Request: fold
Amino acid sequence: MENLNIIVAHGHNRVIGSENDLPWAGEMREDMKRFVELTTGHTILMGRKTYDSIGRPLPNRRNIVLTSQDDLEIEGCETVNTFADVLDMEVDGDLFVIGGAKVYHLAMPHADKLYVTEIDGDFPGDTFFPELPDVWHEVYREPHGVDERNCYGYTFVEYERIT
Reply:
């Protein structure tokens, strides 16, 4: 693989999920547009709960699901049982980790770049993005306000690992 990237949207309180759904589901169209633009044509990795919340393989991407279930088969997806399995896979181009919290935690020490959407708000939830260790340097920041496509203000932020 060329780069292992993490892509995530979270509130100020680092919430990324509530009852296996996005707290702002359907209300942040520019974040979803950016997600599609960045991940289309690449390999994506998600945990099984994230897959369940989406309910289908995402089109125009190689979908890999990390699961502890040895015999799980998902049509249109590859399954792996450990993060080490992911690191050993042949991946053309970039790999994007798309969630959930456990997979983000496993990927963080190996990631090259983070694509973050900071959503303006503290949201109730049960799933959180990990705190960033000091190995990350912000390289891009683009703030946006509320508009007809987005119910909350948000900021696109990109980080690169300090080497």
In short: The mean pLDDT is 96. The helical segments are 29-39, 48-54, 83-88, 101-107.
